[in-house]
Amino acid sequence: MIRECKPSDKPVIFLIINEAATAYKGIIPADRYHEPYMPMDELEKEMADGVNFFGYEENSVLIGVMGIQDKGEVCLIRHAYVRTQHRNLGIGKKLLKFIKEQTEKPILIGTWADTDWAIGFYSKNGFKLLDKIEKDRLLKKYWNLPQIQVETSVVLADNRRAKAKALDSS
Fold first, then answer.
1. Which CATH class is domain 2-169?
2. pLDDT tens column, 72-109
3. Domain ranges of the chain
């Protein structure tokens, strides 16, 4: 079952993110990986900044989370994680499908360039990698990242972005 997360879910969201993010160790730039990957105060700041989390629950236990953040003309997928022992069971796909149904706006996803598994997952689910110029522009416009993270990240967009761009240019 997918449900909107409540403030009382913060400790479990924190655990899911930080357990799943251990996959980044040795993959992303060393100065960007730390434990916990997302400290509680950072999670609270993200939620205060409008990241709305939804969770996949099984037997009354959250095992995956995905956030959406409305940025005006687009929405961002933020902090998508599934507990390690529940990966590759379709939970991420279900969460992504659910999140996509929550908005008609174009959706953007930023992730690390060296996380082939994440890029592959989003690509299989209808998202396209954007070129470097567009990626850099969007990361600076919609995210608040240090330059090293801009340089080592990618942005993927759903087909709504292409349709919106086509309308803008006509």
1. alpha beta
2. 999 999 999 999 999 999 999 999 999 999 999 999 99
3. 2-169
